[in-house]
Amino acid sequence: MLDRSGAPIASKLNYRLEPVEKPLPKTPMVMKGSYTYMADAAVFKDCATGITFPVDNNIALEQGYAKANKNAGEPVFLTFNAHFSVQPSMEEGLIEKAVVPDGKIAFDRSKSCSNN
């Protein structure tokens, strides 16, 4: 555990975090980031964390991306409601956290994570 300046906390208390095996919540939340679709695979780079996640297949996202983007494979800013799900990876035997769209999809080529 680190303090606000990033230095380790000197304490006799146990600050170790343990992972839990509980399912991810399915409550939709507003997400903002860049969406890229290419070769039947979609990824979403979250503005808040900078982490890139695979996106569960969604025809509305594919169609919105096609309308908003002139050049396939280039990222487009996206705001939408979504939740996370743990799903099998494209690599056999692995699982991954994916973004599952829940609606209110809005693509905007004029925006980015730095100016939304």
Automatic annotation (TrEMBL):
Which Pfam family name is an example for this entry? NlpE_C
Limits of the NlpE C-terminal OB domain: 26-114
Top-rank lineage group of the source organism:
Eukaryota
Q: Write the protein's name.
A: NlpE C-terminal OB domain-containing protein
